[in-house]
Design brief:
Layout (H helix, E strand, L loop, with lengths): L1 E2 L10 E5 L7 H17 L2 E8 L2 H5 L11 H10 L4 E6 L2 H4 L3 H12 L1 E7 L12 H11 L2 E5 L3 E2 L2 E2 L2 H9 L3 H8 L3 E6 L6 H4 L5 E3 L10 E9 L2 E10 L10 E6 L12 E11 L7 H19 L6
Parallel strand pairs: 1-4, 2-3, 2-5, 3-4, 5-6
Antiparallel strand pairs: 7-8, 9-14, 10-13, 11-12, 11-14, 12-13
Helix pairs in contact: 5-6
Length: about 300
């Protein structure tokens, strides 16, 4: 169940975890696995507390980088983890000014949190002044237990959102998959397009992604999924320099016989399997059409018979 602050408080006793959970990578997955294990053992409901927008975007914009996934994708990933409650906190001044002690009391009073499961470097409260030691120090008074999870590594590298952002910025979705344990995808809403693709013989599903998604601009081979059916596609994320070059778009052209027919306002899953090339401006629409034909052939070779995660 999706909750906002206005929906609180919960009556059941819970096991809680708190974080940005941007991407739900292997490190996050280990925390969620432990959360569910503890909840089952202690007969608690599971709660994931996450934030939108990203706190750093509000508190320290100069150090804010970009998003791995949008809110819709994050919620989709958490639902797949079978979490009982997903609390999405609208991150604002009133919330971030809570002291560490006030934040822990909030967990107790509004979420009945009896087990707190977090990474070993977790910080919380105003100015990130709270740490694991403080959480453990106050646990007896507030009647909860603290469980910490060690870092997860991929080879010699710590699995982290910052590393994944670097790979996405380079278009290395293969390496991103290693850190996520799954294909990189976004849940996006279909919007009304300007029919430019249709005019040149390559109709597209038009999407309006977040402006600050980490993904490298360019052309990808991947899939579009709607109602559990996935179809091969060439996906363009960027500014369409040959057409207008102003707004940021995401467009997906299905490269096989249509089995799906999403319409405006439907949500679809866009899966990125391989980066084909950077965006570039062509001298003519005819040159663009020829390049799209080449992109389609490259994508067909990459994608093979059908979708496999």
């Amino acid at each position: 169940m999706i909750l906002k602050l206005k929906d609180l408080s919960l009556k059941e006793n819970t096991a809680c975890t708190i974080g940005n959970y941007d991407g739900i990578h292997k490190g996050h997955q280990e925390i969620l696995r432990k959360l569910k294990e503890i909840a089952k053992d202690k007969n608690l409901k599971t709660v994931v507390i996450t934030f939108y927008p990203h706190p750093k975007k509000i508190l320290n914009p100069s150090k804010y980088k970009c998003l791995i996934v949008n809110l819709e994708t994050k919620v989709d990933l958490l639902k797949k983890e079978n979490i009982d409650y997903i609390l999405i906190v609208d991150f604002n001044k009133q919330f971030y000014q809570k002291s560490p002690e006030e934040f822990l009391k909030f967990l107790k009073e509004y979420l009945n949190c009896r087990a707190l499961v977090v990474g070993k470097d977790w910080r919380f409260g105003y100015g990130a002044k709270g740490d694991i030691n403080l959480a453990k120090e106050l646990s007896k008074d507030l009647d909860y237990e603290v469980f910490t999870i060690e870092d997860v590594k991929d080879g010699d590298k710590r699995v982290s959102s910052s590393e994944i952002r670097k790979y996405l910025k380079n278009g290395d979705v293969g390496k991103v998959k290693e850190f996520l344990g799954r294909d990189y995808y976004l849940i996006e809403k279909v919007v009304e397009g300007d029919k430019k693709g249709r005019e040149i013989g390559f109709p597209t599903l038009n999407l309006k992604p977040e402006e600050d998604v980490c993904l490298k601009k360019g052309v990808y081979a991947g899939y579009v999924c709607f109602r559990e059916i996935c179809q091969k596609a060439v996906i363009n994320y960027g500014n369409r320099p040959t057409v207008d070059g102003k707004k940021t778009f995401m467009e997906a052209h299905i490269i096989e016989d249509y089995k799906i027919s999403p319409t405006v306002n439907d949500y679809i899953k866009v899966i990125f399997k391989h980066y084909i090339r950077e965006e570039k401006q062509f001298k003519s629409v005819e040159d663009l059409k020829n390049q799209i034909k080449l992109d389609i052939e490259v994508a067909k070779n990459i994608l093979g018979e059908g979708y496999e995660n």
